[in-house]
Amino acid sequence: MLERRAPDDPREWVNRARSDLEIAGSRKEGVYLEDLCFHAQQAAEKAVKALLIKHNVEFPYVHDIAQLLTLLEKTGQQISEPIRQAERLTRFAVIARYPGMAPPTTLDEYNEALSLAENLVRWAEDQLRRPV
Q1: Which segments of the chain does DSSP mark as H helices, in order?
Q2: CA distance 132 to 130
Q3: How far apart are CA 114 and CA 117, in angstroms?
Q4: Whole-model pTM above 0.85?
Q5: Which end of the chain is flanked by fewer CB atoms within 10 Å, N or C?
Q6: How far apart are the C-alpha atoms of 14 and 12, rounded to whole Å?
Q7: C-alpha closest to that of 97 among 59, 46, 63
Q8: How high does pLDDT run on average in the chain?
Q9: Is 61 helix (H, G, I), strand (E, B) or coil?
Q10: Residue 128 CB neighbour total at 10 angstroms
Q11: CA torsion sign, 11 to 5 to 39 to 29?
Q12: Rounded mean pLDDT of 60-86?
């Protein structure tokens, strides 16, 4: 069980990101890949927001990972291309969750989404351990 922290503590946001990542990785019969990809997107989003909190940056409650990474970059945080690739998860925040708005998610797309989210969460955890 994760230790709960104050909502303004970046570690609580990473805890929530880790929780979403666990859900995203729990592939089972009867669960749509789109729903698991939504949790991968949520993991990445919350991890970026944890870093924004660390840098004392107010952020909008949006699902656009590109927008959030751009805000983070304005703090001087370097964002590598592999991390920036997580922007592709944004499509799973809304459109992919509703019937008929997007084609069904393939297994390859799911595996990529999970990998992108895992990389971003690990990177965010590493960044949180570094001084500002």
Answers
A1: 10-24, 33-54, 65-73, 81-84, 107-129
A2: 7
A3: 5
A4: yes
A5: N
A6: 5
A7: 63
A8: 95
A9: coil
A10: 16
A11: positive
A12: 96
Closest CA to 123 of 63, 78, 92: 78
Place of tokens 């970046």: 10
Are the CB atoms for 54 and 128 separated by under 8 Å? Answer: yes
**Residue with the two structure tokens 């998860």:** 89
Record the tokens describing residue 53, joined without a space. 């909190």
The pLDDT of residue 3: 84
Instruction: Tell whether the model's pLDDT for residue 1 goes beyond 90.
Output: no
Q: Terminal CA-to-CA distance of the chain, rounded, Å?
A: 28
- How many CB atoms are located within 10 Å of the residue 24 CB? 24
Condensed to tens digits (0 to 9), the pLDDT of residues 18-40 reads: 999 999 999 999 999 999 999 99
